[in-house]
Amino acid sequence: MVPDSIIIVNALALFILIALFLATFFLLRRKVSIQVIPLLVGIAFFIIFSLVLEQGLHSIVLQPNAQGQITLMNTHPLFYILYGIFAAGIFEELARFIAFKLLKQGYANFGTSLAYGLGHGGIEMLILGGGSLLGNLIISILLRNPNGQLAQELPSSIIQALQNTSAGEIFYVVIERFPVLLVQICLSVLVWVAVNKTKQFWLFPLSILIHALIDLPGAMVQVGFLSNYAVLYGSLYLMTAGLIFFTMRILKNNELYPLKKGLP
């Protein structure tokens, strides 16, 4: 049986994650017109490029076994890191680039970049972050009956993992996913500028490098090169802050973000 405190914390973390997404949506909507089509395109392109195409490549290159274990992580960890961070960067930034090319005819305004970024990053937050919290919450509630069918069928390792999870570990999802949402919005802005402004194409390959760099600490944790979560999340927040500052400078240089007037 999973402790009631873990069920409560899971529910609270899920609520906070959804609240942060909605707060970001309403904040952006106050500043700029968030149109539905670019937002839906962001959702669709994340699913197609990241969850379908990228995962398909992973199954070929990484060849995980039936338990999901990847031999390459142990035999060639450096290659695994480089492959992982650049695969994510290339697939997701290419998704943005193609999407903005397609949207350029009917949705060329700056708000398209924010709407797409919110859709792309929001669905990632809700699927990867909210999905894991919701799954844990449902299983934890069903496991309140230790003699129930689920308790008999679930592997003991899953039950023990839930029982041994601390409240702090649950909130890691919130701590990680919110800055990632901001990163996805900023990268969407940079690629939008690359597509829609002359002599700014350099921002597209730069966005791939930035994406890979931000994913680097997480990849290092996977292979055991980094185990300090303070360093992991500290670096994530520092890089997110740096990316926000850089994105604001790009907007100002392209006269898209007059500081006193707000976003157009």
From TrEMBL:
Positions of transmembrane segments: 6-28, 35-53, 80-103, 123-143, 170-195, 202-225, 231-251
Keyword Transmembrane helix assigned: yes
Domain of life: Bacteria
UniProt keyword terms in alphabetical order: Membrane, Transmembrane, Transmembrane helix
Protein name: YhfC family intramembrane metalloprotease
Naturally occurring in which organism (per UniProt): Tetragenococcus halophilus subsp. halophilus
